Amino acid sequence: MSRPILKVYVTSHFERSFRGLAGSIKRKATIKDSWFRADAFDPRLKTHALKGNLKGLWAYSVDREHRILFEFLAADEALYHDIGLHEIYRR
After folding, report:
1. Is residue 91 in a domain?
2. Is residue 74 a part of any domain in this protein?
3. C-alpha dihedral, 37 to 9 to 73 to 49, nearest 10°
4. pLDDT per residue over 50-69, tens digit each?
């Protein structure tokens, strides 16, 4: 059963991080965002809940190194907090 996301909000931190990415990563992230909006748990995204200090947040894969860190605001809404390498998990 798919879980479509009708609205995605972004933080200013996410916007800054996204602007700093290479063009190829931005293109991949845009494609993955469209998959996420169609189904937040599309297996290709490897969506997973985070633990510890990041409990309540989730992440999905853009590629082998890059992740998008987000939270669900409602069943069909999400807030993107950050995008980048695994360092985004160190808050």
Report:
1. no
2. yes
3. 60
4. 999 999 999 999 999 999 99
